[in-house]
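Apologies for my clumsy wording, but are you able to produce some protein sequence, whichever is easiest, and the C-alpha cells describing how it folds?
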Amino acid sequence: MLQPTTAPVFHKIHDAFHKNTNNQHIVPADTSKCAIYFIRNPLDVAVSFAHHNKASIDTAIENMCNPSFSFCNQQTGISYQFRQKLMDWSSHVNSWTNQQQIPCLTLKYEDMLNDSLNTFGKSVNFVGLRYNLQQIKQAIGNSSFNNLKLQEEKEGFNEKQPLAGSFFRKGIAGDWKNALGKQQIDKIIKHHGEAMEKFGYL
C-alpha cells in the first residue's frame, strides 16, 4: 500500500491537459506543484513519430492533425499502458501552455540540444531543486543522447515500441529537411502554423 510522502514525486506523461468524463482535470492542481512542458518543431516530430511507431510519415502527420488522437486507444484486448489523449499537435501544445491551473515551464527540444546547461538549469530552478553547477553538469552528461543510446543498445529501453528499430535514433534538430516532401510540410504548416509561429518554428 502506498504511504503518504512529503518528498516530491515526478511523473512523465504524454497526455494533453484535459478533463475526464467526470469533468475533472486529469492532472489535478491541488496535488501538482508545477509542470514542465517540452515542445519540439512539429516538422521534426512527424519524422521521429513515424520511426517511433514504425509507421509512414504520412500516417504520423495524419495522427498529428487528428483532434481525437490518443495513444493506446484500442477497444479490444489489453494494453500495457492506459489510454492517453493527445489530440492534434497544436491542441496538445495549447492545452498545456494556455492552462492556468498549474504553473508550467515550457522548454524547447532545440534549446535542450543547443544550450543544455542553461535550459536544464531553468527546469531545476523552476521545480525548486537545490543542486550545484557540477551536479547539474553531471546530470546532463549522464543523460546525453549518446549515453542513452549506448545504454539502450546494452540494456534495451522499455518505452521502445516492439517494431521500432530503436528509441534513441538521431537526437538532432532539423532532420525534417531531409525527410519531408513539400506536400507534407505544407500540411503540417496549414494545421499548426499559428502555434509554430508562436514558438518560433516559422
Notes: Residues 29-129+173-198 form a domain with the Rossmann fold fold (CATH 3.40.50.300).
